[in-house]
Sequence to fold (403 residues):
Amino acid sequence: MDSSPSRRGGLPHCSSSPAVARGRAQDDEVEIYSTPEIQSWMNSIEKCLSEVTTMVSEGKMNSEQKLRVSSLCLKVGRGVSQMAVQYQSLKHKALQNYATLQTFKENEDLASSLTEIKQKLEENLIKQKQESTSFADMVKGTKTLIRPHATSSVAIYPRDSTKTSEDTKNLVQNIVCPEEMKLKVRGLRKIRNGGVIISTETKDDIQKLKQTVERSTSGLTVDEPRKRKPRIVIIGVPTDMAEIEVFKCIYEQNIVDKLPNLTKDAFLSSIKLSHKSGKRDADSCNFIIEVPASVRRALVNQNRIYINWTSCPVRDFTLVTRCFKCQQYGHASKTCKSITSTCSHCGAEGHTTQECSSKEQPPKCATCKRYNKPHNHKTGDLDCPARKAAEYRYINSVDYEGA
Fold:
């Protein structure tokens, strides 16, 4: 007769083998019992224990043994009850954890979707910006018709050729008092040949300035500032066409109907090719031409120019020259009077951009830095205040004839 503890009192042995335990531990699915199943399980065990107790009480055992068996059965019952309570608690926690994991997974999927959407939007924005920037860099023009500020200007020069623009500026400021004369001065800037240009809101202010300077004995002369012709850029002109052929097509296909009083000879003598831009060995290039204000208005307003079999976008050309030696606007490096170079990356003087040792640091605008303005942007950036100011000065130096 088997006398092992697992067989005493008719109770079955419930322990699992190590292999079964490992198999359960490795199983990904967790078996979860509902409350009715637990109650059925407990009722079955209590029934078995009750039968054992009855059998023991009817058997030939002494009182001490019977009491011992009954006590053990009670302990088993209490243990099973505790196991059921613990199982219920574990089940509740497991369900909570499962729900939390599901929420995390849904949030993770949502975050992943949002990240993907964000990346696509950023890629599209970068692509649009690159296309816009590359287009702007290519043509250096504006897509809308230029509307210069309606200001009036006067140029003042010294009769003494040894005087500088700074000397002229000081003389003018000693002679003219805007507060007393109630002048609305828009700006005063230096120009070559020792002169200055003063811009005001109205022509009446200009007349007051002229009269005041002419009456003085300061040795200054007053002149109307000479304005330059507008420039436009024609994008995508076929490179196999000669310059004169392009100009004739512009007249015949675009101008003759809009400006019938302008003859072809007068048109050809009034325009001039400033320069060409574009990639070498390309099938097309960009023509930057100087034109009268009336021709510029007619062409830019129609947005495109038809040249033989080609339709070419046309824009106002407002590029301002930036010196790559001193990084200032208004002149090229070949005419720069600065002794030392200025770095376009860090904004420091004394070395070129290629020699800069701070390229890992954020860029600083050399132009704005020189004038102690906010300079946490690239030199020559499209939104650079110095560049915009230079473009504003350029636009107001062009004869748009009221645009």
The domain at 152-223 is CATH 3.30.70.330 (Alpha-Beta Plaits). The two ends are 118 Å apart (CA to CA). DSSP finds eleven helices and ten strands in the chain. Residues 1-30, 129-140 have pLDDT under 50 and may be disordered.
